[in-house]
From TrEMBL:
Residue ranges occupied by any HTH cro/C1-type domain in the UniProt entry: 12-84
Any single Pfam family the record assigns to this protein: HTH_31
Top-rank taxon: Bacteria
Name of the molecule in the record: Helix-turn-helix transcriptional regulator
InterPro entries per the UniProt record, alphabetical: Cro/C1-type_HTH (IPR001387), Lambda_DNA-bd_dom_sf (IPR010982), MLTR_LBD (IPR041413)
Length: 286
């Protein structure tokens, strides 16, 4: 990276850092009530680098930032795709093709057979990027919109943070949404600079302020089986135990199953999910 590129990169990052709204990061005003701009230590913390190193980056010092660090700074400054590509180019990296959010590949037939065998326990298969790649009838009864969703938008985090039907069913939405995101973050650590991950996080930042706030909290949590409660508008209260299964011959998929617990008539209510009109949308019966 030559001197001119280093200077331009530092100037650009400093300008963008000073322009962001602190409230977008759930941060209070600073100084005399200033509501715009992050401190260097704040963006350094969010991006996982030292304050000294980030200061040198803005000062145009002769350092060699990795692509992963440039991606992290770009994501945490919430740069647009064009701005993200621009800073990558200044740092000497070829901007990657920006793939659209893509439809996941079909799951192996034996995974679909497993999902079908788990009825009436609502169950679905997740890819490494948490795209919902397949599901059974009970899951479609629990969440009818999964059938009609754009395959490229059929992502569990997208549903949790942007779908009103999902939010209305979860009496503990705030805790559950953050827990799912913490689990995703734990799984995504090895691909945090990959284009699909960066694209997903950037997309959800753009459409959900609540996602942005939860993502910036940097919570990380390993999955553990747990009790899940849904308030379904058609069949009523449902109480499940959520479990994850990783097929040995399809290790890139996670099968998530909600096993009915013997509470509040859940076994009968879960069976009723199979009887829902397959052509009825989420608003049917309102």
């Amino acid at each position: 990276m030559d001197t001119g590129a280093r200077t331009e990169l530092g100037t650009f990052l400093r300008r963008r850092r000073n322009e962001v709204e602190r409230s977008d990061y759930d941060l209070p005003p600073v100084g005399r009530g200033r509501t715009t701009g992050l401190r260097r230590e704040e963006i350094a913390f969010l991006s996982g680098v030292s304050v000294t190193w980030y200061t040198w980056l803005e000062q145009g010092r002769d350092i060699n930032p990795s692509r992963q660090v440039i991606d992290a700074v770009a994501v945490n400054l919430r740069l647009t795709e064009a701005e993200h590509d621009y800073v990558l180019g200044l740092a000497g990296f070829t901007p990657p093709p920006r793939p659209d959010l893509a439809e996941p590949a079909p799951v192996p037939s034996h995974v679909q057979h497993l999902l079908d065998a788990l009825d009436p326990a609502p169950s679905f298969a997740l890819t490494t990027h948490w795209d919902v790649a397949a599901w059974n009838r009970a899951y479609e009864g629990l969440f009818p919109a999964v059938r009609d969703a754009d395959p490229a938008q059929r992502n569990l985090l997208q549903f949790i943070f942007t779908d009103d039907w999902v939010r209305s069913m979860l009496p503990d939405w705030d805790r559950t949404s953050r827990q799912f995101l913490a689990e995703y973050r734990a799984e995504a650590s090895g691909r945090s600079s990959g284009p699909q991950h960066v694209r997903l996080v950037s997309h959800l930042r753009a459409v959900s302020p609540e996602f942005s706030g939860a993502w910036d909290a940097h919570e990380v949590e390993r999955f553990s089986s747990r009790r899940r409660v849904f308030e379904h508008p058609r069949v009523g209260r449902l109480v499940f135990e959520q479990v994850n299964i990783v097929p040995q011959d399809a290790p890139d998929l996670h099968v998530v199953s909600y096993l009915p617990l013997d509470e509040d008539g859940t076994p009968a209510a879960a069976a009723a999910l199979l009887e829902a009109d397959p052509e009825a949308g989420p608003d049917a019966g309102d």
